[in-house]
């Protein structure tokens, strides 16, 4: 085989392996940070006083808040394999770890901006079609990579997960409204932050984390983890 062709194949395989290694994977748990404001996607057992009356979803500047962890799960009828890298345009669900509800949207007006309301919905991860989100990549990569900002487009309505900048008063003083917005802009770009990232079992185990973390890397029979809590 021509040496140039061999080199081209090796470079392709190296790049493919590197992309898979850095890709967000099914089953990983992490915080999502709004790229413009720096607030983290957050939920808690506080219901909206208007609209759907469902559990509220907000943006919080508090980096240490445990209520900002979300686990990535597959589509309702086509769940993903744990550790499988998430391709761009994949339909996913985001499961709120603390309250065990799914990131959700529907045709209710959000309380502050009058955009489309975003809530946390369902019981133990069982929800409905309003829980489905498409991963919209903003780079030319084929996979959702940790370093890349993405948008989350609500499948049922076509709108984007958005941080408007409007701020709540009591009982969630200082937290920002999360809504869905019709157009792609800088306020609906999100990046992953600290979390537990599951790798496929063929990958070597590695660990990086914040100095203040008390959580250790762990492995199971089928999974490897990158611990960044």
Features:
Trefoil (Acidic Fibroblast Growth Factor, subunit A); mainly beta; disordered C terminus; 38% strand; 229 residues
Layout of helices and strands, plus pairs?
Layout: H1 3-22, E1 29-34, E2 40-47, E3 55-60, E4 70-74, E5 91-96, E6 101-109, E7 116-121, E8 133-137, E9 150-154, E10 160-167, E11 176-181, E12 190-200, E13 223-227
Antiparallel strand pairs: 1-4, 1-12, 2-3, 3-7, 3-11, 4-5, 5-6, 5-8, 6-7, 7-11, 8-9, 10-11, 12-13
Low-confidence stretches: 4-19, 202-229
The rough form would be described as globular
CATH architecture: Trefoil
Oligomeric state of the chains in view: single chain
- Ends apart, CA distance between termini: 47 Å
| CATH class type | Mainly Beta
Q: Mean pLDDT, as a whole number?
A: 83
Number of strands: 13
Largest sheet: 13 strands, antiparallel
Number of helices: 1
How much is the radius of gyration in Å? 18 Å
Strand content: 35-45%
Topology order in helix (H) and strand (E) letters = HEEEEEEEEEEEEE
User: Approximately how much helix is present in the residues?
Assistant: under 10%
What is the number of domains? 1
The CATH topology is what?
A: Trefoil (Acidic Fibroblast Growth Factor, subunit A)
Give the helix/strand class: mainly beta
């Amino acid at each position: 085989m021509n040496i140039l062709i061999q080199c081209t194949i090796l470079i392709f395989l190296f790049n493919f392996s590197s992309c898979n290694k850095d890709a967000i994977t099914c089953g990983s748990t992490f915080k999502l940070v709004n790229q413009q404001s720096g607030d983290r996607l957050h939920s808690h057992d506080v219901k909206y006083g208007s609209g759907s009356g469902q559990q509220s979803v907000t943006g919080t500047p508090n980096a240490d808040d445990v209520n900002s962890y979300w686990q990535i799960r597959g589509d309702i009828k086509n769940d993903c394999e744990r550790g499988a890298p998430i391709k761009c345009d994949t339909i996913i669900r985001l499961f709120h770890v603390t309250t065990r509800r799914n990131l959700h949207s529907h045709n209710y007006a959000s309380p502050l901006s009058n955009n489309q309301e975003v809530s946390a919905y369902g019981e133990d991860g069982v929800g409905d079609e309003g829980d489905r989100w498409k991963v919209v990549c903003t780079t030319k990569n084929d996979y959702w990579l940790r370093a890349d900002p993405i948008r989350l487009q609500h499948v049922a309505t076509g709108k984007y997960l958005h941080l408007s900048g409007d701020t709540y008063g009591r009982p969630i003083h200082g937290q920002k409204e999360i809504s869905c917005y019709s157009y792609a802009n800088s306020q609906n770009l999100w990046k992953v932050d600290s979390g537990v990232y599951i790798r496929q079992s063929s990958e070597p185990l590695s660990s990086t984390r914040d100095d203040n973390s008390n959580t250790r890397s762990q492995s199971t029979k089928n999974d490897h983890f990158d611990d960044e809590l």
